[in-house]
Every structure is written in structure tokens, then in C-alpha cells.
Amino acid sequence: MSSSSSTYEGGYLNMRKRMLMRAASMLVGAGLAATVAPAAVAAPAAQHLRVPAAARSFHHQTSRTAKTATPNVGNNGGVLNPGDKLLPGQKIVDNDATLEMQGDGNLVIYLNYASGQHFAAVWQTRTWGNAGAYLIMQGDGNLVLYKAGGTGALWSSGTWGKANANAEFYTGDLMVGSDSTQTVFWDSGTGYLAQKDANGNYPDVPSDSLLSGEALWPGNWIESTNAWVLMQTDGNLVVYRKRDGKALWSSNTWNKTNVVTVMDSKGVLAVIDKSNGNPYWDSNTWNSPGAHAQIQGDLNFVVRTPSGTPVWSSGTYNQY
What we know:
The structure is a single chain. The chain is mainly beta. Helix content is 0%, strand content 33%. The chain has no helices and 25 strands. The radius of gyration is 20 Å and the shape is elongated.
């Protein structure tokens, strides 16, 4: 097929946040072979865009229900039941991610490095400048952020009419859903990429790979033991070291809106404009059908063919 007829395609995102960890593979150096990329590509088809939250299952478990009487709600995610609040300064911690009701009125989801300090915001309500604002899970199913004293709503999940719904923060995703029907009514769209295991389940273990036909939307990531690959909300794809949150490599595509990172079936990893499919950055690996992208345990981000041959690398190996 000629380069001019190439298109981005594939089922772009499996939105569950449970996935199978695959072991990190061989160390790869720089100077990998590349092929010529086409000048432009077609936009992804509408049916390949993000799976609606309503199509997902709700994984609330009573054992993880957390109250908000203290600023630190828990280390394994948490649930806000009808009437529960998240007050200024309070937060829910889920391994590497934190949902925090900031004192300035902004509700933010952060990634944290090893010490627990925040280094990247992956979602926010953009309601800063409202000191004293608080979050409440209402009995009508709506998750609402109110001004201090409850004098006005600043943000909501738009899920009213869903009586007895819960809000859950787990695997970096904030969700509103129903235990009884195992349905998600709304979610933040953040968290790590999900891939089914051999039994068709989503293990609570982060994956290290973006497979052919999959995508990372802003606020999504893959991870290995020592590093993340985060699709930032500013449009930049970044490799971060977990130890201290240091950025080791990026696609240099910051300040781009309406973007998504795709692993095309033809073997190219690319940050594209989702409205027209044009790439802002790509790995230049067009002759590698079925290739996948992997963040290795040695901190190197690699594109590999189905046989395991590396065709592109970020060159960040062994930067512990």
C-alpha cells in the first residue's frame, strides 16, 4: 500500500482500568531503523472513539467503602456513598493516583511519584478561586461540587435521576455508578489502560503495553515497575520515572488540543489530531504491521514487531 493511502484505524481504546502486566523485555539502545511516514493520515472513524462509560461495569466493593472524616481517606481507592462529602484538603489515594478536594475549590486527579508528592494533573474541574468548596455525592445520583456553604453548584457529573448511585475513585478513575446494575453512568476517563487477560477478566494490575489498534486518551497511561507513559491533558506524550517523577522523554507536542495517542495497525505509534487524523508526532515505523508499544522495566519506551524485534526506542534505558 502506498504511503498516501495509509490511515489510522483500529478499536482505539479498551476503557477498563484492569489489565495484564507483561514482563519487561530486552534492553534496547538508540539508533533503530525507521521507514518513511506518510505526510498526512485520515481521521479515525467515529465508531472507534472512546467507549461510553455506560458500557463499562462498576466495580464498587463494600470492603473499599471509605469515609471522609480524616483528610487521608485510604490507600486503595474509596467510595462516596449518598450523603458523603469530600471537604477542602481531603483526598482519596489509590496507589499512584490521588483525588484531592483542594482548598482553592479545584477538584483534581493527580499522579504521584514514590514519595507521594503530586507531579502531574490528569483531570480537574477547573473551579479554582472558590475557597471552601466541597464535593458531595447526592442521593439523586449526582456528584456535585458546591461553593462554600452550599450557596451554588460549580460542577456536577450530570447524573441526577440515578437514585442511590455511588461515586468511586479507583485505578485513577473517578466514576459514578450503580452497585445493583454494575453500570457506570459517568467517569473522568482517566486511569491506566485496560486489557483483558486470557479468561476475559481485567486484573487489578497495570499493563506496560499499548497494543495494535489501541489508544491513550488525555489522562490515560501505561506503566512498568519503574516508569509511566502518560498522555497528558496538554497533548504531550511523556515517559516519567516513578522514583521522582522526572520526565525522561516526550513527543514535544504540548499545547495541542483534541489529541489522542494511537498504536496504528500498520505499526506506527503517533500523537494525532483526532478531528482529522493528522499526526503531530509519530515513531516513523510504518512497515511494522501489528507492532505494539511497551514501556520496559529498564525505563525504555519501545515499539516492537509481533516477533519482538525493536523498531523504535525512546533511548531512556537504564535511567534509574
